[in-house]
């Protein structure tokens, strides 16, 4: 198979996997774990010298960094009929990539925004409220992260007053990039209550069958 996605679905590999599921791509999933040294073998370091998952291998074109993987797949595997930026998606498969330069601007800015402004704090909330064994959790770190995240989420909340999805009125790869990070902060119930539009948008994104399929893969990992 020429398209491979490396990384367990219970990791940032969920981002390219979500794109692949939305687009109905045929791919080989190599569910490499991130613990236990599997990402530090000479074979894997030859694929990603950072020693991290995910990696997309598109017939020898190697993409690492989860957001880059998601953006790459959305653009590379645009459904037929959507090959030019101006084309409409009438193929039945969702068009996750940009149709216009204005949409491209939205997709890029929100995808970069979420990794630089939100990911660290969302991860702290996930780790210290949900993932870590109770005795290792530091609730104070989750509380501080939640307070910091209120700033950027306020920006998103305002944006969602003007549109249903991040790049306008249709679901795009920008929604995948941002929702896949903000799902880590869902246990921040007070913060979500302060941002009702964001919370509703997040629920809508996470209710998509493609996301549910990736979550099922993660749960069976
Ligand atoms: N910025 C990178 C971070 C990748 C990352 O930290 N991946 C974790 C799993 S979610 C990993 O591979 N950890 C293994 C390690 O650091 O040894 C991305 O978004 O792809």
Summarize the model shown.
With 221 residues, this protein is of the alpha+beta class. Helix content is 53%, strand content 7%.
Question: Any overview of this molecule?
Answer:
- By secondary structure, this protein is of the alpha+beta class.
- It folds into 2 domains: 3-95 and 214-219, Glutaredoxin; 101-211, Up-down Bundle (Glutathione S-transferase Yfyf (Class Pi), Chain A, domain 2), CATH 1.20.1050.
- Helix content is 53%, strand content 7%.
- The chain has helices spanning 14-23, 42-47, 66-76, 101-131, 139-159, 173-182, 189-194, 196-206, 209-219; strands spanning 3-6, 28-30, 55-58, 61-64.
- The chain has a 4-stranded mixed β-sheet with strand order 2-1-3-4, covered by helices on one side.
- α3 runs antiparallel to α6 (173-182).
- It starts with a strand and ends with a helix.
- Glutathione is lined by residues 11-12, 34, 39, 51-54, 65-66.
Shape: globular
The portion of residues assigned to helices is: 40-55%
Rounded to the nearest angstrom, the radius of gyration is 17 Å
Order of helices and strands: EHEHEEHHHHHHH
The strand count comes to 4
* Major sheet characteristics: 4 strands, mixed
Terminal Cα span: 22 Å
Query: Ligands bound here?
Result: glutathione
Strand order, biggest sheet? Answer: 2-1-3-4
Low-pLDDT windows of residues: 83-88
CATH fold-type name of the largest domain: Glutathione S-transferase Yfyf (Class Pi), Chain A, domain 2
Mean pLDDT: 94
- Total number of domains: 2
The helix/strand class is: alpha+beta
SS summary, helix count: 9
What is the name of the CATH architecture of the largest domain?
Answer: Up-down Bundle
* CATH C-level of the largest domain: Mainly Alpha
């Amino acid at each position: 198979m020429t398209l491979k996605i490396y990384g367990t679905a219970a990791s940032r590999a969920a981002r390219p996997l979500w794109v692949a599921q939305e687009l109905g791509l045929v791919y080989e999933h190599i569910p490499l774990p991130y613990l236990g040294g599997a990402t530090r073998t000479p074979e894997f370091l030859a694929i990603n010298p950072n020693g991290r998952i995910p990696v997309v291998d598109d017939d020898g074109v190697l993409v690492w960094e989860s957001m880059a993987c998601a953006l790459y797949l959305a653009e590379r595997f645009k459904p037929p009929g959507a090959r030019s930026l101006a084309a409409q998606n009438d193929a039945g498969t969702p068009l996750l990539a940009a149709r216009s330069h204005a949409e491209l601007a939205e997709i890029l800015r929100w995808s970069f925004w979420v990794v630089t402004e939100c990911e660290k704090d969302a991860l702290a909330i996930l780790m210290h409220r949900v993932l870590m064994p109770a005795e290792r959790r530091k609730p104070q770190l989750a509380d501080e992260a939640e307070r910091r995240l209120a700033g950027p989420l306020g920006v998103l909340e305002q944006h969602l007053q003007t549109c249903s999805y991040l790049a306008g009125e249709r679901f795009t790869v920008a929604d995948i990039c941002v929702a896949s990070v903000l799902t880590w902060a869902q246990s921040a119930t007070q913060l979500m209550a302060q941002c009702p539009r964001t919370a509703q948008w997040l629920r809508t994104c996470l209710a998509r069958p493609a996301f549910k399929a990736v979550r099922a893969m993660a749960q069976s990992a």
